[in-house]
Amino acid sequence: MAVAEDIDRATDSQQDWVAEQTRAYLASGGTEGHVNNGVHVLVLATTGRTTGKPRRTCLIYGMSGDDFVVVASNGGADEDPAWLKNLLADPSAGVQAGTRRFTARARVASSDERATLWPEMARIFPLYDEYAQRTDRTIPIVVLTPQAESEL
Fold this sequence. Notes:
It is built from five helices and eight strands, in the order H-H-E-E-E-E-E-H-E-E-H-H-E. It is of the alpha+beta class. A hairpin with a 2-residue loop joins strand 6 and strand 7. The longest helix has 14 residues.
C-alpha cells in the first residue's frame, strides 16, 4: 500500500528524463517543476505489483473538484503504463502536487466520467488526442482522491 511517505524512498522511472524531472521536483520541495511547459505535474508513488516496492513517476494532471486526474496514455503505446498496472493491483498511492503531499485512492474513471474528463485533459495537454490515435486501446483516465488520515 503506497502512502505519501513512500514518495521519498521510491524507485524512479526507468525513463531518464522522467527520473531527472522527479528528482528535481522533489529536491525543491515541489516549488520547481510543478508547472512544466505550462502544464501542472504531480509525483505519483505506487506499489510495484510484483516487487512490492514503491515506484514513482511524474504525470500531468488536471482537477475534478477535489480529485486529481491523470491520463494513462503511455505515449499512445498499446500497453498500459506500469504505474496504472500497479494501481489496478493496489489503488493506494502517494501523491505530491506542488508542495502538497498526501495519500490517495485511485480508480479508473467510468465511461460517463471519461466522456467529460477526456476533453478537459486534452485541452490541458493536446498531445493526448494524438496519443489516442496511435493505439486501439481506450486510454484510461485515473481519478486520485485524497484520503483523510482516518480513511487510511
